[in-house]
């Protein structure tokens, strides 16, 4: 990792080559795309917005030539990368200028919520769009061997899920940007401030405004008419990622004080994967921290 981060910062051409190469490799594994986005963020964090913009633009041009000119495929992936890297670039600038991880994460959440607004503004019925895509995806599973009642239950479940997929998709894209931001920030700390990212993440605490906004969205989701309920419910999904990360930061800080260290963290993340309701508890910890300040109990008297 250190060698890769060092190579990216050696020069503009090196950074462009890494972003381009990793993006091509991401067709093998989607996890590699986190590294390509981080390779856009790192020069932005270290050298500024202009350098990041040059790396981003040059890599996009090379990919457009490769995808459209050489391979003859749709330019749609390049458009998606423009949105993804553009969002990551903006968040990197926010972190570089504010030097506060919480501001960067709130900014990412705002972009996720803006995505929901844009989708509802550009699509007459997003939930219907998602329902059709889901139904098409599972249609082979709804064979004639299944009873009509069972197939009806599956379709009803898909219809309910489709109402919230706009918010879920926005939250997923938002999480992708955040993970790449964390990776790039870790690279930067590893090279110039060892241990800095660990301390920065463990001290993460959210401002209170996003929490009150979230409660307002819940109120609209519960009291508004059908259309506004659906929009508000989808807008309320991206902030859940913010609360989850804040809760995880508190747990990281707690374990570092108790000496549980890496073994405790591995246990938490394994439990989080195996027992998904644990995420709700961690979100509650992160959300309530704006009032309770859980780290206060970790400080010596």
TrEMBL record:
Protein name (record): Membrane protein
UniProt keyword Amino-acid biosynthesis present: no
Entry keyword set: Membrane, Transmembrane, Transmembrane helix
Domain of life of the source: Bacteria
Keyword presence, Membrane: yes
Pfam families in the record: DUF2232
Organism: Candidatus Methylocalor cossyra
Annotated TM spans: 25-45, 52-72, 78-95, 102-121, 164-184, 204-223, 235-255, 267-292
Xref: InterPro entries: DUF2232
């Amino acid at each position: 990792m250190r060698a890769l981060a060092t190579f990216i910062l050696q020069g503009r051409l090196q950074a462009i080559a890494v972003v381009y190469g990793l993006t091509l490799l991401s067709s093998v594994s989607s996890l590699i795309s986190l590294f390509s986005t981080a390779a856009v963020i790192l020069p932005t964090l270290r050298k500024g917005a202009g350098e990041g913009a040059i790396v981003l633009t040059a890599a996009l041009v090379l990919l457009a030539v490769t995808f459209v000119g050489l391979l003859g495929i749709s330019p749609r992936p390049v458009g998606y990368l423009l949105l993804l890297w553009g969002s990551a670039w903006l968040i990197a600038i926010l972190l570089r200028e504010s030097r506060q991880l919480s501001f960067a994460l709130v900014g990412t959440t705002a972009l996720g919520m803006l995505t929901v607004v844009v989708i509802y503004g550009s699509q007459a019925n997003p939930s219907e769009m998602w329902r059709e895509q889901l139904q098409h995806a599972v249609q082979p599973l709804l064979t004639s061997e299944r009873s009509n009642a069972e197939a009806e239950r599956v379709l009803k479940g898909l219809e309910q899920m489709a109402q919230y997929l706009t918010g879920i998709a926005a939250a997923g894209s938002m999480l992708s940007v955040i993970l790449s931001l964390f990776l790039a920030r870790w690279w930067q700390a590893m090279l110039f401030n060892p241990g800095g990212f660990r301390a920065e993440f463990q001290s993460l605490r959210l401002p209170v405004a996003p929490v009150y906004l979230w409660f307002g969205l819940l109120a609209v989701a519960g009291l508004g008419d059908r259309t506004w309920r659906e929009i508000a419910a989808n807008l309320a999904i991206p902030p859940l990622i913010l609360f989850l990360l804040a809760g995880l930061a508190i747990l990281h800080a707690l374990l570092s004080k108790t000496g549980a260290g890496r073994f405790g963290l591995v246990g938490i993340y394994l439990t989080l994967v195996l027992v998904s309701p644990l995420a709700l508890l961690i979100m509650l910890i992160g959300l309530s921290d704006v009032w309770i300040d859980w780290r206060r109990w970790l400080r010596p008297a």
